Amino acid sequence: MMNKLFFFMLIWFCWLVFGQEKISNEIALNPSKENSKIISNKIPICCEICDPLSGVCKLFGSADYSFEIDDNLSIAGKEITFVLKLQINSELIDVTTKHSKWIIKNRSVETVNILNEENKLITKHYSVTNRWDIALVVVYQVTVKEVRIVDMMIVSET
């Protein structure tokens, strides 16, 4: 009888020590949505840009972004992976004729690996409707707190 009681106590003790550790690891690996926050914003676009073929153009519109990040993972020096959704919706207008207007619309999803304190540059090429000869190149700066546009240019596709 004493052996069975001792054996039962040993199993119970092992469950307490090793079972609880496994539960703690599962919580750390599978964070709850309560600790997540969605970061999203609209970046206004309003600038003059040089079209290599027709000269100066104006670019109007916006770039939208959103990503979800877990606050538990925002530890200094730790690499974080998240999915970044980008959407651009802009018009390119030729300043000289004022009649030529081209649309730039696109959506993309990027997987981003970044250290908490780091900046990462993501370059996107966007086609311009009814213009096979050019593309809009946008360079985004991504952090765990925000996305910014750091450069835009029109490049020749010929």
Secondary structure layout plus pairing:
Blueprint: H1 2-29, E1 36-51, E2 55-70, E3 79-94, E4 101-115, E5 120-128, E6 131-142, E7 147-156
Antiparallel strand pairs: 1-2, 2-3, 3-4, 5-6, 6-7
Structural commentary:
There is one protein chain. The protein is of the alpha+beta class. The chain folds into two domains: 30 residues; 124 residues. Helices cover 18% and strands 59% of the residues. The strands form two sheets. A four-stranded antiparallel sheet has the order 1-2-3-4, with no helix packed on it. The chain starts with a helix and ends with a strand.
Question: How would you sum up this structure in a few lines?
Answer:
The chain is of the alpha+beta class.
Average pLDDT level: 81
End-to-end gap: 88 Å
Q: What is the tally of beta strands? A: 7
Assign the structural class, choosing from mainly alpha, mainly beta, alpha/beta, alpha+beta, or little secondary structure: alpha+beta
Count of helical stretches? 1
User: Which percent bin holds the helix content?
Assistant: 10-25%
Biggest sheet descriptor: 4 strands, antiparallel
Contiguous low-pLDDT stretches (5 residues minimum) are 12-17, 20-32
Strand content: over 45%
What integer value in Å does the Rg equal?
26 Å
How many domains comprise the coordinates? Answer: 2
Envelope shape: elongated
Cross-sheet strand order for the largest sheet = 1-2-3-4
Notable traits:
7 strands; alpha+beta; 158 residues
